[in-house]
Amino acid sequence: MFMNRLSKTIISCLLFSTSSLAATTNDLREKALSSPLAYSVVESLTVEVGPRIAGSEGDKRAVVWAQDKLKELGFDKVYTQPVRVRNWSRGRAEAKVTKPFAQSLVITALGGSIATPKGGLQSSVVMFSSLQELQAASEEQVKGKIVFINRRMIRDRAGRGYGPVVAARAQGAIEASKLGAKAILIRSVGTDNSRFAHTGAMRYSDEVKKIPAGALSNADADTLERLVNTGQTVELAVEMQAKEQGWQTSYNVIGEITGSEKPDEVVLLGAHLDSWDEGTGAIDDGAGVGIVSAAASLVKSIMGTPKRTIRVVLYANEEFGLVGAREYVKANKESLEKIVVAAESDFGAGRIYRLETRFADRALPFVDSIVEQIEPLGVFKGSNTAGGGPDISMFPGLGIPVVSLLQDGTYYFDYHHTPNDTLDKIKPEDIAQNQAVYALFAYMMANNDVDPRPAPKS
Amino acid sequence: MFMNRLSKTIISCLLFSTSSLAATTNDLREKALSSPLAYSVVESLTVEVGPRIAGSEGDKRAVVWAQDKLKELGFDKVYTQPVRVRNWSRGRAEAKVTKPFAQSLVITALGGSIATPKGGLQSSVVMFSSLQELQAASEEQVKGKIVFINRRMIRDRAGRGYGPVVAARAQGAIEASKLGAKAILIRSVGTDNSRFAHTGAMRYSDEVKKIPAGALSNADADTLERLVNTGQTVELAVEMQAKEQGWQTSYNVIGEITGSEKPDEVVLLGAHLDSWDEGTGAIDDGAGVGIVSAAASLVKSIMGTPKRTIRVVLYANEEFGLVGAREYVKANKESLEKIVVAAESDFGAGRIYRLETRFADRALPFVDSIVEQIEPLGVFKGSNTAGGGPDISMFPGLGIPVVSLLQDGTYYFDYHHTPNDTLDKIKPEDIAQNQAVYALFAYMMANNDVDPRPAPKS
Which residue, A208, A161, A207, is CA-closest to A187? Predict the structure, then answer.
């Protein structure tokens, strides 16, 4: 008996020393870099759940999956927070050129679009090179027609091509409707040349009539552009069956590794659990879910329990307006000040190349200590003006420090918001690099007394 | 009057000398290499006609388009030859995993497949790594199930990955049905990782029951493979609405530049006019149509009328069993011996890197003269065992000399037989290289007395 108890203690000590005393950040870096954990989490999510648009059956299965997975990964507290979400369904979307030459065109509904009248609508096309050109057009040019905004997205490592183009997706239906258009089709917000159309959220205004809004694949936008450029009148028949299916309850799913010394101080790692409905949401944002969940788990299993709490928040319904993120801020109003720092992974699984921070001056020297840990992984120091990512975009305004771990997004917009967002687009070695960077960042922030609060306002 | 007539004669002479006397093969090479003609032909076909599966409305429009285009390109004789074709229609094809985890899978019907019963069919999946493994299986393993053949295609410049994999597409339904399968799904015969499924012709046998046959996109085959590899029973629901729509008349469209000295000796350049129904048939085989039509046209406009006749044959219904090609041989039985040499372009628009021939010994020295002309374009000499391409594949057996101008097909099977076979996949500079090589080859063969007939039997 005595011997037994003693040997148990010795084993315990050995385990403890291996995991939390002897392990160094070099160990964490190397082990995280060679661990398949993040990839396996994305594999599990995409194969066992698949598409999970907010409020859908897939979304509900994802919430169950996420709780099980976080428990399996060693989070000691796993809980949910209800979020009301609209459940929009895409339905079929079809477009055909009827004049001057018959052609079928691949389109998809933009997220939140209304349907066409049953049987579809027909009209001639008026093409604009940008939202701005549409805004400058006359009612005479547009009235009764189908507006086609034909602006190409530029490929860029940092994804800087997105901003200039996405305005037409979000705002195009409002502007086209103001001038009396019947419908709007935009060239896909994407950098691929393929026949996958890129969906994404769009808005209506109460001031103007709602009109159906869709996106053409880039290859089909090429065809339509060529037809319009012949100078002949081009007519289209468009049918879309999108529909609102009422409100549902979804959930932010939260997992915590409770800190051993300062459990109420929180290092928050975010990603979003929902995806669009056509792909399996591997890069958007299965990758983020895998990266932050695996990173926190590896910190615990390799380095032992951290001093501060590491909290992973898998947000509901990012795609339809950051709804889970807003709910998180509202529901946790009283405790937001306990968040020492937050980071979000929501840009696929391309390698991280830069750390940007938004820290109080006092904590800036510590940024160099973090960078020292992640430089061997190819991550260098950036500015102190980080925005932090969509779901934590309200944090800087609330004084909560954030970091942005900038990823290589050169190919992200080839697949983003298409049926082609699937697991095969993720390179295991790239997602492992992300996992290692997040693990080192979380470890450094959770095992230090440095306090970057409050974040400087911009 | 006199002066007028004289000056006209002078102008005529000048034109003649520019076009046919003074121009050298260097001129032909340079002008053909910088001409956008082939590209513009494919652009016209894909934009103004689009998909053109045999017997369809698109196929009928293509036949009209081809006659107009060949006339526009300066062919002095343009005619058609009727070909009876079956008109199969794809319809929707959908598959869903129902157990152990719900997932939608992207599939497409293989060309010629029957439909599922209305409302679809459901069963468990049995996975095989190849057609051979299926053939070696027992009835017990397969009976009542959905067979999944999961063989990956290897990427290769010469397309050598196709042969080993395509057998499952052509023959899989027969082999699966022999063992009592309900349906068969194969991993797409394609080298992409995307969610486009690759169609292509399949066969039935009168000996066994017809079962529905489809292809999964490679990304979806990955998912299904992962599910099967969990060891749990995987069940699918599959619905396909393919249908036979009876027989139609299509046409081989033929254009000739009649030879000035030996009009009955023919240099034949082939390509096929039909395409599958989901893409716009840009690489398969709009590219070939553009290359051979433009090459012949450029020979005439740059070098003047050739001594032998250059005949462009745009074959009907290659995709469903070389039907137009067989009809061509049958209908022209008496005059086949007049074909001095034939070449076909049906492998996209990748650059040509090698000339293979099947010439009688006496003509072999002339191969070096051709190679001398095309080596500056990166095309080197290959063997004398050429096959010639699908639509002229019966020629060597009939003693008709053929050449194969081998193209770089590294990326061809990323798009082949998918909705993603569109104009943007063709690089203008690559198709221009093809056009220049075909023009030089046709010019050399049509302006020489060399006679490679009869082709050696293999």
Answer: A161
Burial grade of A19 (CB within 10 A; 0-12, 13-18, 19 or more):
middle
Q: Which residues contact B27 (CB under 8 A, 6 or more apart)?
A: B302, B303
The beta-carbon neighbor of B420 closest among A51, A103, A194 is: A194
Tens-level pLDDT at each residue, chain B (458 residues):
343 444 444 444 433 444 445 799 999 999 999 999 999 999 999 999 999 999 999 999 999 999 999 999 999 999 999 999 999 999 999 999 999 999 999 999 999 999 999 999 999 999 999 999 999 999 999 999 999 999 999 999 999 999 999 999 999 999 999 999 999 999 999 999 999 999 999 999 999 999 999 999 999 999 999 999 999 999 999 999 999 999 999 999 999 999 999 999 999 999 999 999 999 999 999 999 999 999 999 999 999 999 999 999 999 999 999 999 999 999 999 999 999 999 999 999 999 999 999 999 999 999 999 999 999 999 999 999 999 999 999 999 999 999 999 999 999 999 999 999 999 999 999 999 999 999 999 999 999 999 999 999 86
Cβ atoms of A423 and A43 closer than 8 Å: yes
| Contact in structure between B398 and B329 (CB atoms under 8 Å) | yes
Residue A107: phi and psi, rounded to 5, are -130, 165
**Rounded CA separation B257/B397 (Å):** 26
Q: What is the rounded distance in angstroms from the CA atom of residue A378 to the CA atom of residue A33?
A: 12
Instruction: Say what the pTM is.
Output: 0.93
Domains of chain B, each with CATH number or no CATH:
24-88+246-446 (3.40.630.10), 91-241 (3.50.30.30)
Catalytic residue from among B239, B256, B265, B318: B318
Mutate to test the interface with B, among A43, A68, A194, A424 (most CBs of B within 10 A): A194
Count CB neighbours of B80 within 10 A: 17
Pairwise CA distance, residues B111 & A107, whole Å: 24
Query: Are B424 and A196 within 8 A, CB to CB?
Result: no
B43 touches chain A (CB under 8 A): yes
Q: Which residues of A are catalytic?
A: 318
* Token digits of residue A170: 């979000």
DSSP letter string over A285-328? IIHHHHHHHHHHHHIIIII-S-SEEEEEEEES--TTTSHHHHHH
From A449's Cα to the closest Cα of chain B, the distance in A is: 45
Q: Using the structure block, give the residue that is written with the tokens 């599910």.
A: B227
Query: For this structure, is B239 an active site residue?
Result: no
Q: Best mutation site among A65, A187, A195, A418 for testing chain B: the one with the most B CBs within 10 Å?
A: A195
**A194/B195 touch (CB, cutoff 8 Å), yes or no:** no
The 3-class secondary structure across chain B, one letter per residue, is CHHHHHHHHHHHHHHHHHHHHHCCHHHHHHHHHHCCHHHHHHHHHHHHCCCCCCCCHHHHHHHHHHHHHHHHCCCCEEEEEEEEEEEEECCCEEEEEEECCCEEEEEEECECCCCCCCCCEEEEEEEECCHHHHHCCCHHHHCCCEEEECCCCCCCCCCCCHHHHHHHHHHHHHHHHHCCCCEEEEECCCCCCCCCCCCCECCCCCCCCCCCEEEECHHHHHHHHHHHHCCCCCEEEEEECCEEEEEEEEEEEEEEECCCCEEEEEEEEEEECCCCCCCCCHHHHHHHHHHHHHHHHHHHHHHCCCCEEEEEEEECCCCCCCHHHHHHHHHCHHHHHHEEEEEECCECECCEEEEEEECCHHHHHHHHHHHHHHHHHCCEECCCCCCCCHHHCCCHHHCCCEEEEEECCCCHHHHCCCCCCCHHHCCHHHHHHHHHHHHHHHHHHHCCCCCCCCCCCC
Q: What is the ipTM of this complex?
A: 0.91
